[in-house]
Queue: 4 jobs
Job 1
Amino acid sequence: MSLLNSLINLKASIIKATAKAESIAIITHRNPDGDGLCCALALQELINKNPHLNRGVLRTIDVVLEEKAPSLFDYVQAQQRTRIYNEQMIYQLIVVLDCHAVERVGRCAPLINTAHETIVIDHHEITQSETIINSPNTYIDTSYASTGAIAFAMFKQDIEGLDKPAKDYVLTNLYVTLLNDTNIFTNSNTDSKVLSMSAEMVSLGVDPSKTVKQYIPPRTPAYYRFLGQCLATIKTYKDDQVLLFYSNNKMLQENGLDSDATTKMTENLKGLTEDVRVVIYAREIEHKRYKLSLRSEEIDVNKVATALGGGGHKKASGCEVEGSVDQIREKVLVLIDKQL
């Protein structure tokens, strides 16, 4: 499949498609994060408020998710500005952000089948095991730290022309995509392009201190009790090269917490010794079904995730797997062992 080869061509495709579409849905991957979701919210606001994209036409521009947006993103009104997918939804134009594989879109995938046109924007690598969304308007550039970074590079001048409330909202969301996918500028993908782009956003009005404080949610004593239970499950394998820990729904219920408490759990293990080459966090999402977060500075965990129906980056990836923790551990260790 041929891809769009430049931001100029991508922007031209978006302008052309939005000009003729009376209904637009912006979607992202399952379990939306601070890149896919916040980039979607930024693009929704930009299309609504930018005359080059809107041209004064009143129409439907929805951000559609599988389920209610995480409360972690209340500071950008994520729940008020999104809709939950249902089978009756039909849109003329679908914009897919932060993923390019049908499997990762999840329950929203039928929206692509009924749309007149689809645009795909992503920064993840393509792997052979994925079913790529079939669209001639697909742009994938792995040199960008986040999908929001692609959007900023493409629409910077348009963002500058927005009124202050719209500009502040768009920029805040795009800044969050950088915070999310660089782990607040601590991951190895924090390069000169990331820092230059974040500086540009600040010069346009982003308050970095305020945005970081909003991005990091306040934690209750109940959260730290839950975290202690999770960390107590830590076990290592392969001569301490692989670390696995998990949480289940019973732990959440005992502490009066919801699934938002499991967000970015692997960040609590920053500073591990070099002996640990792979970190795996498994959180129960329903009986005998877990969502895995895989992190490594040394092996390609994306190969592991895609083999299990997920995807992501070489150093940070995820998937959902059926089975008990013990069964899942054995599946994952076999895949990791091939690279170790």
Note: The mean pLDDT is 93.
Job 2
Amino acid sequence: MKVAVIILNWNGEKLLREFLPQVMSNTNLDLADVIVADNGSTDRSLEAVAEIAPKAKTLAFDRNYGFAGGYNLAIEQTRYPYTMLLNSDAAPAPGWIEAMLAFMESNASVAAAQPKILSYADKSRFEYAGASGGFLDKHGYPYCRGRIFDTCETDTGQYDDAIEVFWATGAALMVRSDAYLAAGGLDEAFFAHMEEIDLCWRLMLAGGRIAAVPAATVYHLGGGSLPASNPRKTYLNFRNSLLMMHKNLPDSTRGRKLLVRRLLDTLAWAKFVAAGDFGNAGAVWRAHRDFAKMRKAYTDHPDIDLLDARPDTRTDILTACYLRKIHRFSDLKHQDVTRI
């Protein structure tokens, strides 16, 4: 087999029962093994896999290693040429593995790629986590082709060309396993959220390219672990965004860009306070406190600033969205995308 489709699970029996049969039926099992990597679940997840998908393989870990740690363990133990990291709340369309594998084998410089991500609840719309390929703006804020902040566009085929992107979603992420391991895998200090963007950044610094491959489609439920309004998710997103920028920016620009980003985060904190949302306001404060402690572990920094070097990172997405009222990727001034 050339591909391992690895589904990381933690106490997700209900999701497995709904989504795993769809993964099995729409995946070419002559090309890929489907593997459920269990993060120390205490429910009947593994029993459910045996009942509903006897052809699926399993890995059982002794505890919850988080999204990053769980996938690192799984890929280290399996070592297929290609690995597809697939969320447990995702259902692929038929032909997805064929399309992704053909693309990767035809584009040797691509280290990681994602399919088109549509909403499981409304299959006509892009889904928040990745849409048709991810970008970062000049301040390190992520947005997607098909999704700007909370606005997800209807998919009319407007983003069906394969392009080079800054990051590919962890909801359905195909990587060259050797490149993944050489880059150090997902950063386990992140635990969850933003770690796939950090990985893609490091893969690019190592000379790889990241791509979106809309010829393959995956339907993603989203919010399967934490809803968007959960303070825990707010904490992880704010903390990990700062860590990602700190570790991947060079000495020459890191201090300035982090200062601007922290000032913008302060505005977000003030907005939460003004709305009486003290749970999320506290999460932003804790994120900055813990970032100040955790950043000391990262002492090696690159020589190049990809936020300056790439034409697709010139956008100020906050200004575009909130001042210019732009909510569609195609309406942004920049169209500096590289088609593959």
Note: The chain has eleven helices and 14 strands.
Job 3
Amino acid sequence: MKLNRVCLYLFIVLFIAGCNQQPARIISTNNNPQNVYPMEEGFVEANRVMIYYKAIGHGDPLLIVHGGPGASHDYFLPYLLPLIKNNRLIFIDERGSGRSQKLEDPSGYTVENMVEDVEAVRQALGLGKISILGHSFGGVLAQAYALKYQENLTHLILCSTFHSTAKMNLILEKIKKKMEPELRARIDKMEKEGLYGHGKDYEKGRYTADYMVAAWGEGYFPYLYANHPNANYDPVANGIMSWDLYREMWGSHGEYVIDGNLSSAEYTEKLSTIKVPTLITVGDNDECDPSLSQEMQSKIAGSKLVIFPKSGHMTFVDQPALFISTINEFLHAVK
């Protein structure tokens, strides 16, 4: 009986001692915080519109504007992530797109208004001078920003874009003419019948699935990818975007003519006023034909043009390593 009491006493003492001990500390052997890339996201109220932003990485700010119009920043990820090692990337969703606020009146979706949104984000986040990278429609927006606010830029990067809607319409016309006759006839028929207002009520504000497949899946796909076609590409899922914005800016008459307010983008004779270091990139089989990039390069003194081989419109998917090295070498050139 006495032995049992002794054992119980020892057990209680050991238990209390154990409870009073500090938990073991895990000591990190990583003394290099530079391999951690924190992400910040939020909203900037720009011209009474909430603009979503996401910032990742270290270094000088590189603001990135997406295409569509009416897509979001999401399609850049994960492909542009290697750039966060040398630059702080600031992605935005343009007004009405992605996570940013939609407008009740679509007439507010203009390139000019989006330029002011970019400038408001730059000021609100205290970015100082920035580099800006624009892809596709985002390249149009980046040009418009540079033409008004180039004193706020250190570098301008124009990827797979155009400087003249009239000239882009000629390229789109050529793409359509090169189609197989059956596909072209199918697309022509749907465009003649009108592209909106068909199907069930929830379908009436967008292209029909048949047109998305024909125009984006069959007509555009060869100009989107070449070296690494995206196995997850789905032309109908591509239609998850801001349709009121798209109709306002691109127009309502199909993929092969831009006749919305984006037709105001005519910068050919203004490009010579851009004096900041400029990089222009394009795929050799890009939807935005290389001839457009070559003309831009001829107009912007000192600009550099890189045509990626075996590449469509999504050059950072087709040639990811080459795309990243090209951007890094431009932004961090040894002087």
Note: The first strand starts at residue 39 and ends at 46.
Job 4
Amino acid sequence: MQKRVLSGIQPSGELTLGNYLGALRRWVSMQDKNESYFCIVDLHAITEPQDPQDLRRRTRDIAALYLAAGLDSAKSIIFVQSHVRAHSELGWILNCMTPMGWLERMTQFKDKVAKGSAERVSVGLFDYPVLMAADILLYQAHLVPVGDDQRQHVEFTRDVALRFNHRFGDTFTIPEPLIGDTGARIMSLSDPTKKMSKSDEDPSGTIALLDPPELVRRKIMRAKTDSGTEPRFDDERPGITNLLEIFSALTGKSRAETEAHFAGRGYGDVKRELADATITALEPLQREHQRYTDDPAELDRELRKGCERASVVAEQTLRDVQEKVGLR
């Protein structure tokens, strides 16, 4: 029996090469073996201030990039989170079953509070893990492909599901996090000690999936490296290690093959070949994205179809939950 997979990305910035290698490309390879649900989690995006027009544009851009990257609506259900009302409804019910102490221990929330004032942090940001739990549990997902930084959220979801099942009987599938290996954690080009992020305030550290070729090349050629001249993987040299990691992920070469490929050569050779490989990988994706941009009606049809298919499964779970807690 196929396992059910669910994952999503926030439309809170431009998708990066890290998102492609760590998430989108993995999802494409998974959709032939699993029953797959991939959403754009726009309700999570508004836990922090967003410009409404930008949010709408980014939501559509990400949907187009999902399809351009190879997600196939004949194999996967692709939808926008807010289009399926059951996410919000189940989120509220789970709120009423979740102890505040569990939320107060969430690392990402504590990190964000530490960077600013608790007075400016929204209740939605505090409550983010409960909505994420609703996203996963609505579809009875067995597997949740996430980065290592999201592992705690899936563990939280498991705790919520177990608590609900213990109180009301077998209701939710208990999900497992699916953490990637190669390419799962692509680091910033300007600061290779931190993850490449679509929310990075330094644009030179990220390669956006829609960056034009000349900008991709410029960013890579200016990427931070380390002392030394031999291109090899070394935890003490995060700059060159990150460039080699990206090259390995893009070309499918192992670490050993990558080191052998660049043996006796310099950092400049690594950057030039990495720029070529990145531009080559992004060209078909950008071309397909443009096709959906030129035909917005087709993108609307895809999202409407995904919403309808997702809603059938989500509403079934929601009705079961409502009956068990006494709301039906």
Note: The mean pLDDT is 93.
